[in-house]
Specification:
274 residues; 3-stranded mixed sheet; alpha+beta
Amino acid sequence: MGVNFKLGQFYGDPQIAVAGSDFDIRAQAGTACEADVQIHTHLDAHIVLVLSGIYISSARGASEFSRAPTLIFNPPGTRHRDRFVEGVGTFVTVSVGTGSYRDFCANLEMSNDAFRVAWPSALASAFRIAREIRDQRDAVVLESSAWECFVTIDNKLHPFGDPPSWALSAYEAIMDRATEARLEVRQIAAEIGVHQVHLARVFRDCWGCSPGELIRWRRVDRCADLLRRSSMSGAEIAAAVGFVDQSHMTRAFRAAYGVAPGAYRRGHVSRIQA
């Protein structure tokens, strides 16, 4: 029969969570093996922004194996078994309460079916939320951003198609290679066959960030993953994820998570042990 998930409940390890009376936003990492993910029903509307990993979704328009970045909209009552291949991936979820969602939909044409959201305005809006929850975690800003993001999903507002294929290739290259210590944006641009200025402009139009910001973001995410799952030292992790040195990693990590890497590791190790 499956299980019912309430507001903010997902298969995943919440790294950062900000919630209010009627919304819940989380940065999460996949933890469940594919076989452990059961058919389940989400009682509330939500979107899932897949940042890394390969995502299996039954949403309309999603490919059988969707590579990041992928944005999925799920209306209230969605029943599915969406999951990551091998349980590996990172994602951000934005959930809103059913009552407020119904009021919100009164003058909009929101879909009654789950579907992949392809237009850049919605992707950029979701990425702004992903950056805000990493950087500032201001609940007022996040709540406002959540509703703005849902507005961009309105069926009447989709004047654009998918991002250019070369922009998606650049995103995948950065996510795959961000841990290379000497990786530069101009290298990615040259390999894709576009000028780096054009790459930066289209990147920001599509996802609301620069290629360099995505590289730093990916490195910090990999750092958090290794802090949770390995016994590597700080210096070893810094080298493994592409930072110049440990102090550079610490500054970037503190800016994203609000705590030093050591404190983050202690908190997650304690929780796992408990």
